Amino acid sequence: MKRSVMWAVSASLLLYGCQQEAESLAPKNVLQINASHQNHQRIETKAEEKMRTSFPEIRDVVAVKGEKHLLVAYQIKQLKRFRSKKIEGEVNKKLEKEFPNYTIVASGDLKIFWEAQKIARKEKDLSEREMKKKILNLKKLKDEQT
Question: Is the model's pLDDT at 72 over the cut of 70?
Fold first, then answer.
């Protein structure tokens, strides 16, 4: 009696678990976006993935694409910050090689990282002109001597 109850309970749990997995595999409501926005996303996502895979000393990455500019802001892990200038040079070389058609603006500065995150959140609401202006403003901020 005890064994048959255990078998019934375990079989029902197994069936319930399989049902949950099948529901999670079902496609959700997918939002359709225009092709130009998808192209932007692909370039930004490709830049972010390239940074994550190529540089283990980088903790977080944000990429924003303008008309002809690609802004990549990143955070360097705590103990690797002593090599920040060398890392920045390697990042610039890698990104310029990977994306030759874009002007690369790459920075490990935390302020620029925060601003790039703000721009990335508002990306859908900004026009190409506003995006270019914001990216150039961040480039000027990056090149500024402190």
Answer: yes
